[in-house]
Every structure is written in C-alpha cells, then in structure tokens.
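Handoff note, outgoing to incoming analyst
You'll be picking up this chain. Sequence as last confirmed:
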Amino acid sequence: MAKIIGIIVVLGGVFGGFMLSGGKLMALLHPYEVLIIGGAALGAFLQANPGSMFMTVFRKSLSLFGSRFTHTYYLEVLKLLYEILNKSRREGMMAIEADVEEPGASPIFSKYPGVLKDERMTAFICDYLRIMSSGNMAPHELEGLFDMELASLKEDLERPSHAVGKVADGLPAMGIVAAVLGIVLTMSILADADNTQIGEKVGTALVGTFLGILASYGFFGPLSAALEHDAREELNLYEAIKATLVASASGMPPSLAVEFGRKVLFPAHRPSFIELEQAMRGS
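Most recent structure output, in case you need it:
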C-alpha cells in the first residue's frame, strides 16, 4: 500500500503542481517521446542482462506491492525449523529423511505452504538437513559452507536491483536523446514554420527531457531501492535459517536453536520471544 501511495504522490505532486500553475496536461502528452525513451531503455536493459532477467524483475516488481516477508511469514519459517529439528532430536536424524527427500509430501512442510511455495528456500533447508544427517561435518565446517553459499546467494538476489538501477541511471540520458531528436525536427521546419509551430516542437523536445528525468528519479530509482530492500530481507531470512541449523548442529536443543535464528532477523518483523515460544508449543 505504501508503494502505491508513493506512486500517487509522485504523479499528483508533479502533474498536479503543473496544472495548478496554469499548465495544460495535454501539453505533456507525447506518445512518440515515450516510445523513444521507453524503447531505448528497454533495449539497453535487454542488451545488458541475461534473457531471464526481464521476467525476474517483472515478477519481483509485482510482488513488492504485497511483500511476503512479514512478521507472520518469519514466524512460520521458525516454526517449521523447530518442528523438523524437534522430530530429528526425538526420533533421530534418519526419521526426517522422508521429509527432506520429498518436502511436498511431508506432513511437517505441508503445514507451511507459504514456505513450501518458495522452492529455493525449501531446497536450501533440505540440503543442509541432509548434510547434518550425514554426521560427517563439524559445526564450524557447516557454518563455512553456509557462508560461501550465502555470499553467492546475496549476489544473485541483488541482480534485479542492480539491473533496474542501471536503467534508472540511463533514463535522463535517454530523455536527452529524445530532446535532441525533437530539436532536429524543429530545425528541419524552421524555413516554413511560424512561431507557434516552432514553440510546439521545442516544447515537445523538452517534454522528452522531463519524462526521462521523472521516470529515473520518480519511479525506476525508487524501484531499484525497493528491490534492494526486498533482497536484504530475503537474505536475512536465509541467515536466520543458517543460525538455527548451525546452533542445532552444535548441540543446542531445538527451542534454543530457533532462538538463535530469531535474534538474527531484522527487528521490524522479528517475532517476540513469547510469540515464538507460544508458536512452538502450539506446533
């Protein structure tokens, strides 16, 4: 909701202020300028990134209007970890083999469809539970493996933000390209045009610069920052999973291991100690 309000405020502030100062909104409506700027920006984006990046950015941008990284979701992840670790402690690591090999059919994982829906996170949890069940890796070695994977994961999660950030940086220049083309058109009709026509052409050219700057600092720059924030939140959850599993591998009981994970979470969505304790009792 906050992001929708932000978009409305940008549009209302810019275009509302323009109209209140006596401007006519139709004077800013130039679809060919939008085509030049948007086409150039899209083409540059496609050249600079892998083919799959466009859909990745598109999906992540849509998901920002209803982020899954909430207080409830964080609590569900911790409850899942507690249940699976509690089962392994009571019945042995071999007891969770079926849960780890087929999480979709697992009674434990099935209780948390939000987590199960995230295939990467589910695979991340299951992979390290397999490693722990082998019993051949010391806790510090397990932590080192976590760190290496999280470093790689961090880079992957931040790619959409960097890709959109590059587009935001280039949009003012794309606006200048549209403006220069508008001036070229103006110069081509100077011999036959009157002052009104020349004014319209110059105004159209200036709109190109305006649209490029507005798109950059009003929309794509904030989108890049929002994607970066989303990546940090997702990575933080993986770090909480790491802290929980490393604590368990070090001999901590499940109730204390998930507390390690809870402490790693960002305070904005971190469940309280009492909330987590009640959730564990309920599960």
